[in-house]
Amino acid sequence: MFRNFFKTAVRNLSKNKFFTVLNVIGLALGMSLSLLYIALLFFLNTFDNFHPHKERIYRVTSQVYDKQENPRYASSPAGLADKLNHFSGVEKVVRIHSSLYGDAVYGEKKIHVEGYFADPDFFEMFNFPFVKGNKATAITNPNSIVISENEAKKIFGDKQPMGEMLAIEGYGNFLVTGVFKNLPENTHFGCEAIASYSTLKSYEKAGSADTEEGWKSFRGSFVYFRLREDAKLVNVERYLDQIAKDRYQKQDTKASFKVQPLNKIVPGPELYDQIGPNWGYLGLFLIGLMTLIVLIPACSNYINLSISQALERMREIGVRKVMGGRKKQIIFQFIVESTTIVLVALVLSMLLSEIIRKNLLSQMVETSPIDLTPTVPTFIGFLLFALLIGTVTGLVPALYFSKIPALNALKGKELKTSGRSIFRKIVLTTQFIISLGFIMAVIIITRQYQYSVNYDLGFDQKNLLDVNLQNIDPQRFKNEFSKISSVQKISMSSHILGTGSTAKRFVRTADQLDSIEVSSMAVDDNFISNMKLDLLSGKNFSNNQQENSRMIIVNEEFVNRFNLKDPFTALDKSILLTDSSAYRIAGVLKNFHFSGLKEVIQPFFFEYNPDKYNYANLKLVTGDVVGSIEAMEKLWKKTGGEGKLTARLFSDEIKETYAFYKMIMRFWSFLGLLAITVACLGLLGTVSFTIKKRVKEISIRKVMGATSENLVLLLSKDFIKLMVIASVITVPAVYFLMDYVLTNTQHYSVPIGFVEIIASLFIMMFFVLTTILSQTLKAANANPADNLRSE
Predict the structure, then answer these.
(1) What CA–CA distance (Å, rounded) separates 313 from 690?
(2) Given a cut of 70, is residue 323 above it in pLDDT?
(3) Of the candidates 743, 676, 745, which has an alpha carbon nearest to the alpha carbon of residue 433?
(4) The whole model's pTM is what?
(5) Is residue 427 classed exposed, middle or buried when 0-12, 13-18 and 19+ CB atoms within 10 A define those classes?
């Protein structure tokens, strides 16, 4: 029986080649993103599935009740570990602190490192194999550290790392006691180095773990434990409840502790202070919603076109019913047809999803690396998904046709329902809304990007080249590179101005008790003039290093925040840092956007500290950047540079700061292109079939004197009305939504005006009218005699 159904389905589909091709392409486009989403779900399902006894490993999370946001943290106070160590149902406890970050110095190399402090049992609880060293004892002693293979290659090159000493800024010297394999992509841990937790105990924040203040510290500290095989988790939960009750009973801020299974971390609930990749349920839901935005219209197109072909299927349905065909057989016939189309579309959609995966996702995804390569389970998931889509899309027209009485079907009379017309209009209007919404969003984001990269940040960006010093002596670099004819002036800085990269310091005036967080950068005496910053009062740094070491140059906002009246009054005022070092204000600069446009300008100061210089800022006198870099590369090795010269135009670095807008543009443009294509395919099929049904009416009207223009307007007006309705709904909704998003994303954002709205409407009308006119003009210009010959 199934064989006969399949043959009939193939005949019907081949008979209506035009609509079959439209449906296959539309469904393939709609399913392409869905296949990637399925692959993502399968990939996330493998997270941390390689650890021994993974089903008995848990993380303790904290629910804080602060009478405001009541946040839930993935972290928890370090003191919990000591409590759990004394509980009989717990086999192992591991503390992790995420504060290991900074520059690791080895010889003349300085490499940025990010990692964790962890207890010795870390490598016993979690399966991260060692390449060198003994994982049982590697991080037992204070100031011992293990690093990944990649990090070992960066720091030591081909040299043996075991037994070498690393100096990490802020923590002192570490002995390399092991090298572990690079962490796999499917783990929620993301680190390059792991140091012994005993090192951290010598610092105040770790030493006060069991004090009242220590139990109020939730950020950065993580506690994992492995349950004994014969123990019950509910007993641990009760024990944690009792600890929270005892600790926070007399405090204003209350907290409770929950246990989170290892396999529920990724994907998992949205928590504050996560480590590693953060794949929350909300994020997955939003990604799934985006795939449905394209998939549902594609399925709706198939349903709409299938029902629209009712007259051509009436007699077939009538004959089946007269010959004894049952309702369920008719339903099954249409499901077989829809499933056949979907399976053909599946092959095409797999090719499309592979193109997207290789060429688009690598540019758009800013999160941790993800592996969406299809595996046998994902292929099975694709097939089941296609069968589900085929069943759902075939069920609606099947139910429609199965309700038609046999006599009416033989006469070619379709079932009269107002719902079908309403369904078609809703489908087309919804597709117009989605398409116009994406077009508007992309245009607005494009304008925001252009606005951001061209914004006057308050300093010069032209012909500036930033070179990463990579531990080269700044003075030696300046002496050698000043000899290049295209280099006009060289300055030094610790960070790149205008990119959001600054240091944070807590400072106060002599008559203040509370410190205020202030951004800062270390620069030399050439930097302010090189950047053409406007000095309102005071003086710049001089060539007297001893004098410079106790001077700072602040911005206007610094003067305002510390109530120093005006730029002239602020001069020579004493400023104290948290380490009790004192500085005086030597100059005040006009406000400039040192951290970019995301936030309003905050207090800021420049200090003079050659030990912190990471970049050389070269002012070029020529536009020949390529030639300048070639000359620099020749000097690089002679100056003592290791590795490759890293030099970038300042304007390019500013553009990269706002690259996330380009990522959004690419992603939304792609979604919009899919949505518009699916909408146009559905519109093309609907217009084509509508004209096919009205071909004799059109011919009679033309014989009676109707012009081609009249006929085009007659055939197009209903679709244009739907477009107008969609525009009335979409424009205000997207306007207010994007205005809210831009305002909350970036303080200095572009205002949305009529240009964006008119351009979006023009683009949408172009696609819609082109699709409609491609069919209506053909029908209006046809010879009426060809269609009325048989009447």
Answers:
(1) 16
(2) no
(3) 676
(4) 0.71
(5) buried
